[in-house]
Amino acid sequence: MKREKCDLVIKGAQIFNVFTGQTEEGDIAVADGKIVAIGRGYEGKRVYDAKGYTAIPGLIDAHIHVESSLLSPEEFASLACVHGTTGIVADPHEIVNVCGIEGAEYMKEAFSKLRVGKVCPLDVYLQLPSCVPATPFETSGAVIDGTETERELERDLFYGLGEMMNYPAVLAGEEDAMRKLSAAKTLGKIVDGHAPSLTGDELNAYLCAEIKTDHEPFSVEECREKVARGMYIQLRNGSSAHNIVENVKAMDEFNFRRFILCSDDKNAPDLSRNGHLDDALRKLISLGVPAKYAVVCATLNTAECYGMKGRGALAPSYCADVVLVNNLSEFRVHAVFKDGEQVAENGKVLFSHEKRYLTDAVKSTVRMKDVTPDSFKIDIPSGKALAMYVRPRVLVTEKETVSVRCEGGDVCLENTDLVKLAVIERHFASGNIGLALVRGYGLKGGAIGVSVAHDSHNLVVMGDNNADMARVARLLKEAGGGMVAVCNGKEDVFPLDIAGLMSSAPAEEVIARAAEIGETARRMGVKEDYEPFMTLVFLSLAVIPKIRLTDRGLFDVEKFAFADLEIKG
Amino acid sequence: MKREKCDLVIKGAQIFNVFTGQTEEGDIAVADGKIVAIGRGYEGKRVYDAKGYTAIPGLIDAHIHVESSLLSPEEFASLACVHGTTGIVADPHEIVNVCGIEGAEYMKEAFSKLRVGKVCPLDVYLQLPSCVPATPFETSGAVIDGTETERELERDLFYGLGEMMNYPAVLAGEEDAMRKLSAAKTLGKIVDGHAPSLTGDELNAYLCAEIKTDHEPFSVEECREKVARGMYIQLRNGSSAHNIVENVKAMDEFNFRRFILCSDDKNAPDLSRNGHLDDALRKLISLGVPAKYAVVCATLNTAECYGMKGRGALAPSYCADVVLVNNLSEFRVHAVFKDGEQVAENGKVLFSHEKRYLTDAVKSTVRMKDVTPDSFKIDIPSGKALAMYVRPRVLVTEKETVSVRCEGGDVCLENTDLVKLAVIERHFASGNIGLALVRGYGLKGGAIGVSVAHDSHNLVVMGDNNADMARVARLLKEAGGGMVAVCNGKEDVFPLDIAGLMSSAPAEEVIARAAEIGETARRMGVKEDYEPFMTLVFLSLAVIPKIRLTDRGLFDVEKFAFADLEIKG
C-alpha cells in the first residue's frame, strides 16, 4: 500500500507472469522475504536496478540426485544458484544406500547451513529414498524397510517418498512396498515415480498407489499415456540421459501444466559448463517450445505438483525467489534473489560455500575386508566362461560365451580382449567379492577402480592383473573412496571422501581431477566408446539388462537370477 | 491388473480426459470407490453400459451459499446431484449469521447423513464464514471474532475460511481480520476472497493475506489483473449475478487453469429448471468456450485450487466421481456416480432425501420482541423525509427527499407513492426496529415480510399500514421465519422453518409456494421491476450503495454512517 518503504525493490524489470504467459514492465516490491507487490512506484530500503533484464521465478529441479555431481552440497549449491536454481527436490538415494538415514540428515544439514543473511540460498525438498537397497541381489550400506519408512517419513526432514523404482513390487502388491506407499499416503506426502516402459494395465495399477511423477518415459506415446493417466512428466535434462528431447514432443498447449523439469543426474563439468535448469530451458527453446511454456514447466508447474506453497510465481505473497535473465530465449542468468536476498550475480555466488559441514557418518565409509592379489583369481576349469560385453555408449550389456585358458587356478588374460571386473562389498567388510570377465573394454597394463557404483556403491575394480586390482582396492579403502588408477607402478588417487560418493574439494578441483584421472585411464587403453570410470559405475546396477556384477556375483537381469561365470559341459 | 473383478465397470463411454483435453472410448474400472483403471476389457461385479455417453469427472462448485436456494441441504443435494454435481465448497454465511457455528454444524451434518450405500452423494467442503456479522451496523445472530475463528478453524468441520468480504479491514491491517487470516495461514487452510473492483496497490495488499479466489470482478481488465496477481477466478453463474458472461472474456488457452466455476447464490426454481454447473457449462459453450476448457474449469481446476485430493479427474487412484452426459455441448446429465456408487439417473436421485435432519439450533430461530401497530409509526414533524428508491432490476438504491404529511405522530401514506419499510431485530428480541420510507415499490392494501435479509437476516417488512405490518411480523415469528403476505384480511404464510432461511418442504413444494406467494405480493401491486420478496431481501444489506435499512436504522452507505429519516430545517 506504499505506506512504508519495502525491504527491496527490483526495479524496472520485464516481469514474466507464469499465470498469463505475458511479460509486463514494472517493479517487484519485497518485504520480509515475500513479494508484497508487482507494479510501479515502490520505494525500498534497497533498490536493484533490473532495467533491461527479464525477471522469472526461481527455477525448481523436480528430481535430482545431488551425489551424482560428485560435489559436496555446498559446492553443488553454489553451481546451481548462479544458474538460477532456487529449489531442488533432492533424492539422496546414493548416500542413503551407503550411510542410511544419517546420509540424508547430512545432506539436509549441509545445505541448510549455507546462508546469505538469514536466508538459505537453496530450498531443498528431501525425499526419503524408497529403494534401499535397490535390489535384493547386492549388499548396500543400509536397509530401509516399510517399518523404518513409516517412522522416518513422519519427520519434517523428508518432504516425500523418493522414486519408487521397484515397480514390480508395487504391481505385485508386496507388503513391504505397500507399507512404504501407504505411509506416504497417510501423511499426505508425495511419492515420486520411476516406471520405464510401464503402460496399460500395469501403469493403471502402479498409479493406484498414488505415485505422481515419472522421468523415465522412452517414447512420445508412453509419455502421452502417462499424462493422460494423471502423472506429472519430469522432462529430464541429465548429463547422460536426455529423454527431454523425445518426451517434449508429447507436450502441447493444453497438457503442458503436467510437465516439469528435472536433472536426475548432473555431473560437475556439465553443471559448470552448461548450467542447470537454465540449460534445460535453452534446450526446450531449441526444441521449439515457446518460452512461456518452458518457464512455467520449471516454476509454477513444479510448485503445484509438489504443493510447494508460495513458490513458482512472481505475485504478492509468494516468496521473493527471483531470477534476472538477459532474455527469454538465452536465459543467461544475471542475478538471483532467494527470499528477497541476492544470492548470485553474473556467475558468482554472494555467499560463502568454502566451509564443509561433515559428519562422522559420511566420513571413512569404506569398510572393506583386506584383499590380496589372490582374491581376484578366477578359475574356469571348463575353459568356457560367460563374459560381459558393454554396448558402446549405452548402459546395456550383452552376454557372451568366451573360451579361456587357465593357469594355476586363474584365467590368463594375456593376448585376449578380456579384463577382470570385481565388485567388492565395502559397507560391512564381509569379504564378499563378485568376479566377472569383461570383453572389449580395452584396459591394459594395470587397474582402475571406483567407489561410486549404482545403487549399492560397493567398490568396482577393473584390471588386467590381480596385483594392480588389489592395490586399487586398498587405495580406495585408504582414501575413503574415490577413483583410482594404477598403471606400471604409477598410482593416481582422486578421493571422494564424502561417503565414497562426493568430494569435499572445490568444484573446479573436482572437475579438473575427474578429468585428469579419466585421461589416465584412457591412456591405459579404455576405448573411446566408454567413459572409463562412469561406465564402470553402472556395471553393478542389477536392474539394467542384460548382465551385471554385484558383490554377490554375476547377475542375469533377464532371468532375474544369479548366473555362473563358468559354463560347464 | 485384471487379477480379480472390479466392483463396478462403467463400460464403453467416451471418456473425457482433463489432462489431455481429449476423449477416448473405454471402460472406467472402479474398486473400493476409487478408479483403478481406464482402459478396456475389465470385468466387474456390476457393469454399467455407458455406450453413447460421454464421461466427465464429477462437477465441483467452488463457492455457494446453499441457504440461498431456500432448500434444506437434503433437497439441495438432490437437485444438485441429478445435474452432475459431486462436490461443493459451501460457505454457510447466512445460517451462521443467524445461528452461529451450530448453523454450520447443522449444514454439514444434514449433508453427511445422506447415503447411497456407504457413500455420501455430495462432497461438502465447508468454509468458516469470515464476516459474522458482515458489518458493525446491524445485529446478527452471532459474532465470530478472530479468537473464535482461530479456535473453530482448527476443526475438521471447516475446510477453509469463507470469502473475506471485509476487504477494507484487510487493507487497513485491522487486528481482528488479521487474526482470522493468520489462523488460516497457520493451519494451511484456503481463504476465499471477495474483492469487487479491487486493483493495483489495494489488490497487491489484499493478496499479501494469501487470499486465493474471487468471484466479484466486474470487467475483463479487473479479471485479467487478478489472474496475473495469482488469484483463481470463480466464474459465477448465479441466479441473479452472471458476471460469467463478462469475466469469461478474460480467459485464454494459457491462463484457463486459473478459472473455476461457482454459483454463489442459486435459487430452487433456477436449480430445478436450468440445472447447476451443467447450466454453467452450457453457458460457457454458448459463450464460445471450447468444451475441453469448460469441463476442466468445473473439475480439475477447482480440485487443484482447493487442494482436493483425488478429485477432478478420471484417472487411476482418483475417486470414482463420474458423470455421464449426452455430449460435450449440451451436457444433459444421464447418470451420476459418486465414489463408485450410482447416485442419479435421468434426473432422478437414487437416494432417499425425504427425511430431514434438524437440530434445535436451527428451529424456532425468530426471537422477536412483540410488536404492535404503533411500533411502525414514523413521525416526521418537519414534513420532509429521506426516502429510499430502488433502481429497477439492480440492487442499488437512491436517496430521495420526499414531502410527507403526518397525522397523530405518523406519516400518512394515502395518495402517495410511498410504503413503509421495517427491519426488526429477530435474534435476541431486543426490540430494535429500523424504519424507512420506500418510494415506487407499488405495494398497496397490506404488507409483506421476509426473514431472509442479507447478511444478518432480521425481519424485513414492507406495507402501507401499521396493522398489517404488525400482523406480518407476528406471523413471521409464529412460523419461525419465512415469507408472509397479508392483504385485506387474507394471510399467506410460506414458512422457512430452518433458521428462517430455508424450508424443510420438498423442493417442488418450495418452488411452488415461493412462486405463489410472489404472485400474491404481485397482485398487491408490486411493480414488474422488482421481485416482490427477493428485492426486499437485499434492502438491509449495508454494503451496497447508496442507502439501506438495518435494525439499527437508516444507513447511508456512501457516508458509511447512519442517517436521519427526518430531514430537519
Describe this structure in words.
The structure is a homodimer of 569-residue chains. Chain A is α/β, with parallel strands linked by helices. Helix content of chain A is 25%, strand content 27%. In chain A, the strands form 6 sheets. In chain A, strands 1, 2, 3, 4, 5, 14, 15, 16 and 17 form a 9-stranded mixed beta sheet that branches. The first copy, chain A, is globular, with a radius of gyration of 25 Å. The A-B interface holds A 1-2, 17, 19-22, 24, 29, 34, 36-39, 171, 188, 200-205, 207-210, 224, 227-230, 253-255, 257-258, 292, 304, 307, 309, 313, 315-318 and B 1-2, 17, 19-22, 24, 29, 34, 36-39, 171, 188, 200-205, 207-210, 224, 227-230, 253-255, 257-258, 292, 304, 307, 309, 313, 315-318.
Can I get a quick summary?
Two copies of one chain form a homodimer. The first copy, chain A, has about 575 residues and is α/β, with parallel strands linked by helices.
The poorly predicted ranges of chain A are: none
**Quaternary structure state of the chains depicted:** homodimer
- Radius of gyration based on Cα positions of chain A: 25 Å
| Main sheet overview of chain A | 9 strands, mixed
Largest interface: A-B, 45 and 45 residues
User: What percent of the residues of chain A sit in helical stretches (DSSP H or I)?
Assistant: 25-40%
How many H/I helices of chain A?
16
What's the overall average pLDDT of chain A, rounded? Answer: 96
Shape of chain A: globular
Which structural class should the secondary elements of chain A be placed in? alpha/beta
End-to-end Cα distance of chain A: 87 Å
The number of distinct β-strands of chain A equals: 30
Instruction: Assess the beta-strand content of chain A as a share of residues.
Output: 25-35%
